[in-house]
Design goal:
Elements: H1 3-8, H2 11-15, H3 24-30, H4 32-56, H5 58-70, E1 97-98, E2 100-102, H6 121-124, E3 128-130, E4 142-143, E5 165-166, H7 179-186, H8 191-195, E6 200-208, E7 214-221, H9 227-236, E8 244-246, E9 249-261
Parallel strand pairs: 1-4, 2-3, 5-9
Antiparallel strand pairs: 6-7, 6-9, 8-9
């Protein structure tokens, strides 16, 4: 492009000099102003037309809105009666007692002193393991807890064995008060044990009866020097305990108490 033509040419002609001007980019840039003006004119025309239409029908639109606003709203109430459910009281069910076989409480004793051997397979056949031997029904759902069990009419009646001393109970017996304080106030250190510097712990086993009284105290493990006898004396002079409970009834329960002798 010569100098004269360069001074009179548009920047697009200079940019696309010696290039294919029929290419889309040249056409888009060359006619951009015309297309933008046409688009702007079209949008403004549409806005003016819509505004004029709205002004012409303004009164009709307001009348329709007023009619809708002033029209009363009718409320319809539906009365639906729901059927009352029938509550049937279940008939009282009295559980029958299964036949049970008492398993002896495990005790560590020499072989020649074994009194209650474990039950055999034949003895356990068709029965449940329980605390006592009891006759019941095969379709029973409750395990008997006492020898005196009556299954007449499918019900159960149990009674507590008052003569049996239990090793464990559902509710263990407990001292009614502060046991440590009681022992400290009543324990007297034997002179023989003091002179021979005997110290240790004496284990005393006793029975807490149904009325809470203490009896049958024996020394399970002692230290001598008069401490064993003193421990027995302190235990036998105890006030009444809260008895152990089994099936809601007070029972006799073994209890082992350690009493410590320590020189000050």
């Amino acid at each position: 492009m010569d100098a004269k033509a360069l001074s009179q040419a548009d920047y697009l002609d200079i940019l696309f000099d010696n290039r294919n001007k029929k290419y889309g980019s040249y056409e888009l840039r060359k006619h951009y102003d015309n297309r933008a003006a046409k688009a702007l004119f079209t949008v403004m025309s549409l806005c003016i037309a819509l505004g004029g239409y709205a002004l012409m029908h303004k009164e009709e639109t307001a009348a329709v809105i007023a009619t809708i606003a002033n029209k009363p709203i009718e409320m319809h109430t539906l009365n639906i009666e729901l059927p009352k459910p029938k509550i049937e009281q279940p008939a009282p069910v009295t559980a029958a007692v299964k036949p049970t076989v008492a398993n002896p409480i495990a005790k560590i004793v020499p072989d020649e002193k074994v009194i209650d051997p474990p039950k055999t397979v034949d003895e356990m056949k068709g029965k449940e393991s329980g605390l006592v031997d009891a006759e019941g029904s095969k379709d029973g759902t409750v395990v008997a807890t006492s020898k005196n069990t009556n299954t007449t009419g499918g019900g159960t009646e149990t009674s507590t064995e008052t003569n049996k001393i239990l090793t464990y109970s559902e509710v263990l017996p407990s001292f009614d008060g502060n046991m440590i304080k009681y022992i400290q106030q009543n324990l007297r250190y034997p002179a023989n044990a003091r002179e021979n510097d005997i110290e240790g712990r004496v284990y005393v086993q006793f029975v807490v009866n149904e009325d809470g009284s203490v009896g049958n105290a024996i020394v399970k493990r002692g230290i001598g020097g008069g401490c064993n006898e003193e421990a027995i004396r302190v235990v036998m002079n105890m006030p009444k305990w809260k008895p152990g409970m089994q099936n809601g009834h007070p029972v006799k329960v073994y209890y082992t108490l350690p009493i410590t002798f320590m020189l000050q």
